[in-house]
Amino acid sequence: MTTTAHTDTAALALGDDALVLSHRLGEWMGHAPVLEEEVALANIALDLLGQARILLSMAGDEDDLAYLREERAFRNLQLVEQPNGDFAHTIARQLYFSTYQHLLYDRLATGGGPFAGLAAKAVKEVAYHRDHAEQWTLRLGDGTDLSHERMRRACEALWRFTGEMFQPLEGVGTDLTGLETPWLESVGAVLGRAGLETPEGPRTGAWRAGAGRQGLHTEPFGRMLAEMQHLHRSHPGASW
Amino acid sequence: MVTLTPLEAELLAVAGSVPDPELPVLTLQELGVLRAVHVRDTDSVEVELTPTYTGCPAVEAMSTDIERALRDHGVREVTVRTVLIPAWSTDDISAEGRRKLREFGIAPPRAQRTAGPVGITLGPTRTAGQDPEPVRCPNCGSADTELLSRFSSTACKALRRCLDCREPFDHFKEL
Questions:
Q1: Which residues form the domain of B53?
Q2: Which of A171, B53, B77, B120 has the fewest CB atoms found within 10 Å of its own CB?
Q3: Cross-chain residue pair B117–A117, CB shorter than 8 Å
């Protein structure tokens, strides 16, 4: 497949989103609240890793890109690098991201561009991710006082990272700003049914939440990368 | 549909007879993941394989198994290429494949009504009386089953439980 430099830019950004969130979800292994949930999070992580491999391979060597880049060279959204927090934080992050990714892939699948093949395949998988996050948002938001409070806190805490998703991205072949309204409607509807209010407040802003696409990341990301990359860097080319 | 030469048809049958590494009751042909076989030279063959899921780790094992089967059949050089378009769907599983899945204790995927993204509604997890085509228990055939988890032992399966015989079972979920 021939790709242009602009396509590489977009492939890297979308690939990094998938890779980083996949790694975060993988951190739940051995720690999830119940076995079924552990399996579910691992499956979602695996789908995302598959997407990441295809996307990063469009931009270069997948292993070099994943394991040998410095923090500033990653182009993922700040949302996906946020730590797992409690289970509600993980679910809120997934709800925000999977809703976005579903809208995005749905458009890319029909656009006929370089991402159409992957998007047509992945949009069906992402529908299950979004559904999973919706189900948990309803259970936690509409559950006990404690679960409601935790879910509310998580939705609020991550809200400020959601504006970045709709900033223009070179080479993606679709207008990302146009996804914002359907995203707000979709997420707002789920939160409403869960008895939660749509958070207020800035979603990007003067204090620069949301510059992951420009290579500026939040403090926890460096530590995540250190863990993700150290084996490959310590033993280059090792395999089993 | 491209017409196959007799040799290509023969090689497609050989590659198609390879069992799925994770669901060995199914062949790759029954799973519907083999897209094409192109004979490039007298003894060089290219096989097109499509993954069930983007991140399906079985693809590499499938490729190795296909290469081995074709080499054993006398082909010198085998290249397995992964293709994404058109995307695989559970509708690509053959009728025979569905029967084997059920026999193996996995509820087969239901046929999908429309193409495109899977429509998912936040409905009840229990299917009896709600769904025109309920997921049936592969053990006792009951239509009264409930969803335990949307993700099970592999990405392609959901975990359900039969409310009659009480057995948990995997459901090959629609994609």
A1: 6-82
A2: B77
A3: no
Question: Chain B within 8 Å of A21 (Cβ-Cβ)?
Answer: no
Is A43 within 8 Å of B118 when comparing Cβ atoms? no
Ordered alpha helix ranges (H), A27-61: 35-59
Contact B120 A127 (CB under 8 A): yes
Type of residue at B16: G
pLDDT tens digit string along A121-170? Answer: 999 999 999 999 999 999 999 999 999 999 999 999 999 999 999 999 99
HSE of B8, CA atoms in CB hemisphere, 13 A = 15
Complex confidence, ipTM: 0.82
Interface touch B152/A46, C-beta < 8 Å: no
Angstrom distance (rounded) from CA B95 to CA B81: 26
Nearest to A37 by CA among B29, B151, B57: B151
Among A22, A108, A124, A135, the strongest candidate for a mutation testing the B interface, having the largest count of B CBs within 10 A, is: A124
**Assigned CATH for A5-234:** 1.20.1260.10
Which residue is it, tokens 């146009």?
A178
- In terms of CA atoms, which chain A residue is nearest residue B52? A121
How many Å apart are CA B20 and CA B101, to the nearest integer? 12
User: Based on the domain organization, do B69 and B121 belong to the same domain?
Assistant: no
